[in-house]
Amino acid sequence: MAQQQARGAFIVFEGADRAGKSTQCQMLVEHLQAQGVAAELWRFPDRTTPIGKMINSYLTSQSDIDDAAVHLLFSANRWEKREELLRKLHEGTTLVVDRYAYSGVAFTAAKGLPGLDRAWCMAPDAGLPAPDAVFFLCLTVEQAAARGGYGEERYEKDEFQRKVLDQFHAMRGSSWRVVDASQSIDAIQQQLREQAAAVVARCQRGTSPVG
Ligand code: T5A
Ligand code: NA
Q1: Which ipTM value was assigned to this complex?
Q2: What spacing in Å lies between the alpha carbon of 16 and ligand 2's midpoint?
Q3: Which of 12, 14, 17 to mutate to test the pocket of ligand 1 (most atoms within 8 A of CB)?
Q4: Contact at 8 Å (CB) between 188 and 179?
Q5: Which domains are assigned to the chain?
Q6: Nearest CA to ligand 1 atom 5
Q7: For the ranges 59-68, 118-127, 148-157, which has the lowest average pLDDT?
Q8: Going by fewer Cβ within 10 Å, which terminus of the chain is more open, N or C?
Q9: Pick from 128, 124, 127, 130: which is nearest to 109 by CA?
C-alpha cells in the first residue's frame, strides 16, 4: 500500500445553535497552537465572500431567498473554499471548522419542504472533502434555551431547532464523536483536546488520505 503523506487534520464542529461550537473551536485552536501544531480556525458560512454576504443578508432577514436557492448558496460557499482548504491540509495545517455540510443538510431538510428531502440536500455537497472527525456538541433545545434564549437570526426558534437536531442525529457516522455539551466549558474542552490530539497524530503519521 502506498505511503500517504503527512498532513493537517480536518476537524469539523457541528451541533444545534448555542451548543457552544464557536467557544470550543476557538479554545481548541489556541490549545493546538500552544502545543506547536499549525492550526487555523475556519467557519461556515464564511460571511466574508460575495456568496457569504448574500447568506448573511438572508440569515439576518435583510433579504428573502428561495429555500432551494439559499441551500445551494451555502453549498457554493463551501465549494469556493475547497481548493484553499485542501492546500492548507496538504501543507500540514490542521483546520478546525465551525460548521460544515452537515449543518447545510440539517437546516434545509428540517424545513420539511416538498422535494427538499435529505437526499436532495446532500447532493450539492457530494465531492467536497470529508472531515477526519466531526465533533458533535449534543445539547437539547431546553438546555440551549437556558443559555439565555436564541438570538435574532432566522433559524433560532425552538420548534425548528428540534427538527434540526433530528436531522443531525440521522446523519451520525463513524467519524462522529458525540460530546455532551451540557457539561462545563472546561470539561468539554478537555475531552475535545484528547480526541483532537489523536486525530492530529493520525494525520501527521500520514496513514489516511483526505476523504
Ligand atoms: N446554516 C449554516 C445553514 O442553514 N446552512 C449551512 O450550510 C450552514 C453552514 C449561522 C446559521 O447558518 C445556518 C445554521 C445557523 O442557523 P453560525 O454563524 O455558526 O450559523 O451560528 P452562530 O449563531 O454564530 O452560533 P450558534 O448559535 O450555533 O452558537 P454556538 O457557536 O454553538 O455557541 P457559542 O459558543 O456561541 O455559545 C453560545 C452561548 O452559550 C455559552 C456561551 O458563552 C454563549 O453565551 N456557552 C455555555 N454556557 C454554559 N455551558 C457551556 N458549556 C457553554 N458553552 C457556551
Ligand atoms: Na457559532
Answers
A1: 0.97
A2: 9
A3: 17
A4: yes
A5: 12-181 (3.40.50.300)
A6: 104
A7: 148-157
A8: N
A9: 124
